[in-house]
Specification:
The structure is a homopentamer of 86-residue chains. By secondary structure, the first copy, chain A, is mainly beta. In chain A, 8% of the residues lie in helices and 47% in strands. The first copy, chain A, has a 5-stranded mixed beta barrel with strand order 1-3-4-6-5. In chain A, β3 and β4 form a beta hairpin. Chain A is globular, with a radius of gyration of 13 Å. Chains in contact: A-B, A-C, B-D, C-E, D-E. At the C-E interface, β5, α1, β6 and β7 of C face β1, β2, β3 and α1 of E.
């Protein structure tokens, strides 16, 4: 899992039908150089919140199965993060 | 998912048979340093459009199942993107 | 597998239900530029320990199957590591 | 999919038995900094040709199923590539 | 597949039970900036040898199936490698 901040929203009218109903958010990693991605939200996350993001087939499974065409999902809102800095 | 701009087309006459009928487009990430990839189009995207691209087994599933030899797919055309810049 | 040091903990009250009961730890690679990730712990690892971390569907499988929404897992505590340096 | 040039061959006498009969070629990405990998060839590609390369479980599936221990495959020979340069 | 040199060994007494019996070796890519990883050995590779390494679910399958918690495997010992240099 990667640690991200929710930084935006994305809208697509023309999309693969199984994306209907998914709330798509723009997330940016807080570590590892700050990659920016789009993830489907499973936990009601809002802009500015720190979240846990999963990728690949694990995201697809969490989003409901083989037909969901999303390879990233927000699966937790971080309350507390304690870590040694580099 | 990654955010890409459609920047080109690619043609391959000699190819794995299950690629027949797939429209292959060249996409370039607008974030994360701008990687360039080839993705099969599921939504009728055109050159210059901003799109959502998925990877890995999730792309293969969206393209029709285990036999499709493509690991990237365009699954949405972005109408509106709102995000904080870095 | 990647070699990581356990550097912290993360707590999320609001999370996908299948994450309940997973102990989530922050791990940092000791090689490859030191990426920082969150992994579910399977072996009782503690802060400061050197561990083996797996990713993707292999982590999900090790954590119990298709429903577990975690794509990284700690699967071993390293006792001894012998390697040529670059 | 990534765009690669075929740049070499690799031979391994001692190998996992399900690699027998696979033609293993060295490929180098023409984009994204030029990573070098080994892929099993499905389309009769030759040195110097521009090809489409897939990765992960999608490559394994294209190569014949769960038992094939290769995570990269050449699935098309590029005839024509039109793209905007950066 | 990536081309690696075997550079070391790793031992973990406390580990996920399905790792028992796996010989875990430290491998370093000879290309692509030289990433360092831990892979389970399937072919009897020794320190200093050039090997082919696979990743992800393909490694897990080669190592015996869904329960094996390793996402990298050594599947061939390279006898001969011919490639154009960059």
């Amino acid at each position: 899992m990667i640690i991200c901040k929710v930084v935006g929203h994305v809208w697509a009218t023309k999309k693969e039908e199984h994306l209907n109903g998914q709330k798509l958010m723009v997330v940016r990693e807080t570590e590892n150089g700050g990659g920016t991605y789009v993830a489907a939200d499973l936990v009601g996350a809002g802009i500015g919140e720190l979240v846990l993001v999963i990728s690949g087939s694990t995201a697809r499974m969490a989003l409901g199965g083989n037909n969901t065409p999303s390879d990233m999902a927000i699966v937790g809102i971080i309350d507390n993060l304690e870590m040694e800095t580099t």
